[in-house]
Every structure is written in C-alpha cells, then in structure tokens.
Amino acid sequence: MTLEPLLSAASPIPSHAVAALGAVALGAMQLLRPKGGRGHRAIGWAFVILMTWTAVSAIFVSTLKVWGPFSPIHLLIPVTLVALWSGVRQARAGDVAGHRRAMILLYVLALLITGGFTLLPGRVMHAVLFGG
Q1: CA distance 106 to 110
Q2: 58 near 74, Cβ under 8 Å?
Q3: Which tops the pLDDT comparison, 116 or 46?
Q4: Which one of 19, 82, 106, 124 counts the least CB within 10 Å of its CB?
Q5: Residue 31 CA neighbour count, 13 Å, CB half
Q6: How many CA atoms lie within 13 A of 24 on its CB side?
Q7: Tens of pLDDT along 30-76?
Q8: pLDDT at position 76, please?
C-alpha cells in the first residue's frame, strides 16, 4: 500500500478521496453510536459537509469518460445532493424514520457501493491499496 498514486493524482481527486474516506468513517461512527443529541448532530453535520464536497468535487473527476468527460457514476451526483438535502430536511421535521432511511441508503449507495468501484484496476484507489 502506498499513498503516492493518490498524492500525485490530478486535482480534485486527492481531496475528493479524503472527503469520501472521512465520510465513510463518520458514517460508520453514526451507525454505531447512540442516536440523537449533540454528538450525533455534530458528526452528522460533518458528514453532510464531507458528502457535499465529495459530490461536488466528483463533477470534476473524469477518469472514466463515457459521455465526454462524464461517466455513469456522475449520474449519482444529483442523487447524492438530493438525498443529503432530504435527510437533513427529514431530521429537522422530526421524521426520524425517514431521516434514518435516507442517510443509511446514502451511506450504502453513495459511499460503499460507489466507493467499491474505485477499487477496480486502473483507478487511483486500486493503485493505493494494491500497487500499480
């Protein structure tokens, strides 16, 4: 394992990856910690900020080019931003079940599954973890 491929990658890939990895860690903390309260809200807002940066910076990541500079993964950008907005709106409205569902789906779909694609050969995170 080496960070060299990530550190030498074109902008915004390094900050995009760091934000996504931070969101993965914070999301895992949220899933394991008690819900509600100041700690939950503080971690939640940090998660929202990191996810917003991850989604917005993804616009400028164009390593897989299918339609001009874009790929099917870019279709998840508006989905992610809407899910973030919806999850926050539901929490503020007191819809705990809706908030929980939105944030868990966001974590699984936008971070874990989509993040899994970064481990494919030829991608930066594959080179970080497996060399190459």
Answers
A1: 5
A2: yes
A3: 46
A4: 82
A5: 14
A6: 14
A7: 999 999 999 999 999 999 999 999 999 988 887 666 666 667 777 88
A8: 85
- The encoded tokens of residue 59 equal 């616009």
Q: For residues 94 and 115, what is the distance between their CA atoms, to the nearest angstrom? A: 30
Cis, peptide link before residue 12, omega less than 30° from 0 = yes
Give, as one character, the DSSP assignment of residue 71.
-
Per-residue burial over 100-126, b if 16 or more Cβ lie within 10 Å, else e, is eebbeebbeebbeebbeebeeeebbbb
Q: What is the DSSP string of 9-55?
A: SPTTHHHHHHHHHHHHHHHHHHHHSPSSHHHHHHHHHHHHHHHHHHH
Cα separation of 16 and 52, whole Å? Answer: 10
- What phi and psi values does residue 118 have, to the nearest 5 degrees? -75, -10
CA-to-CA distance for 28 and 103, rounded, in angstroms? Answer: 11
- CA trace torsion 45, 49, 54, 59 (10° rounding): 130
Residue length of the chain: 132
